[in-house]
Amino acid sequence: MGSPRSPAERASRAPIVERTTVTTIASNSIAGTASTLRRLYFVRFGFAILWALVMFTTASELGPLAVTLLVLYPLFDVGAAVIDARASRTTGSPVLLYVNIAVSLLTAAGVAIACASGIPAVLRVWGAWAVVAGLVQLIVGVTRRTMGGQWPMIISGGISVLAGGSFIIGASAENPTLTNAAGYAIPGGVFFLISAIRLSRAAKGADR
């Protein structure tokens, strides 16, 4: 039977136990966030591909279906950002996600108004949104690098910025269409899929 530990020995072990507890809590928080993001990214992949396929069928004109889809996409982004922000509270500041929510809400309203003016106006609003949302996605991805699976999000954010600029420029074309806007969703969806797959390791702790 071992001798009782002295007060000094117990005191020296306390910081180690405390650090271990903090590390465990942090790891569990990251795993929980990664698990939520993984599921969310799979949903975003499916939505983006389905949205793009339907949008391609009506990209040549601003009919009721096209208008509905154009307003729906940023609203879906709002819902996704809300889920993301709630899941991220324990692992970092969700301020940028709140910015994204506000911008996407404004975009939905802006697109609805722009639809009355024609495709060029829609492309300008859509392009501005792609630039801002892309920057947010890129910065958030950089801050989450330690979680893993974020390089696809960083790359996707950068591509979104470039695509947004091309939409704004394309709005001045002689006969602009929404085809590029529809196609914009596909690579974004693929990057969500890749990120979801790469988040599997980080999410294992929460899925056990």
Give the overall shape, derived from the CA principal axes: elongated
Order of helices and strands: HHHHHHH
* Percentage of residues in strands: under 5%
Tally of DSSP β-strands: 0
Main β sheet profile: none
* Overall residue-averaged pLDDT value: 85
Radius of gyration: 22 Å
Number of domains: 1
Describe the structure.
There is one protein chain. The chain has 208 residues and is an all-alpha fold. It is 81% helix and 0% strand. It has one domain (7-207). The radius of gyration is 22 Å and the shape is elongated.
Write a compact overview of the structure shown.
This protein is mostly helical and 208 residues long.
Helix and strand layout, with pairings?
Blueprint: H1 7-56, H2 64-88, H3 95-114, H4 119-143, H5 151-170, H6 179-198, H7 200-207
Helix pairs in contact: 1-2, 1-6, 1-7, 2-3, 3-4, 4-5, 5-6
Keywords: Membrane, Transmembrane, Transmembrane helix
Transmembrane segments: 41-59, 65-83, 95-119, 125-143, 150-169, 181-199
Protein name: Membrane protein
Keywords for this structure?
mainly alpha, 7 helices
